[in-house]
Amino acid sequence: MAKQNTKAELLKDIQVQRRQLEKNLAGISSANKVLPGVCGEWSIKDILAHLAAWEQLFLGWYQAGLRGETPQIPAPGITEKNFHQLNQQIFEKNRILSLEDVEAEFTASYQQILALVQKLPEDDIFLPGRYAWTGKHRLADYIAPNTCSHYYWAKTLIRKWLKGFHEA
Fold first, then answer.
1. Which CATH number fits domain 40-167: 1.25.40.10, 3.40.50.12280, 1.20.120.450, 3.40.50.300?
2. pTM as predicted
3. CA 130 to CA 124: how far, in whole Å?
4. Would the N or C end of the chain have less CB density within 10 A of its end CB?
């Protein structure tokens, strides 16, 4: 996926990747969405919870930045070297939730992040250093990995799993 340089490109990538992911999900039964093995021990449900959690992390970073705070990215006590621990925490927290609850959060979280991107002025998204908490980076450099790039990752995993599932 190419790096987006305009709000229109970013919104298009977010919406296209999300639509493609949802298209893949549409034909999968609820029973199959909770089967482990899509990504390690994760099920499709776990992947959806993961995506929503990372969208919410971004929204939290953004809100903290608006309050003049410097968010701890990705989360307090977590660095790039041990971010797998955060993913495990997200998995553990959400594994007890029902598929319906995870799907509802998956939908609500997407609507929140999409609405934010739609309302932000282009300069706020693409001007490097526009927000103190992003340093020299663009806000888009935080949005894309937590939306369109993440949806692409999930879609690819699910397609690969489905192919193996149907061949078995």
1. 1.20.120.450
2. 0.95
3. 6
4. C
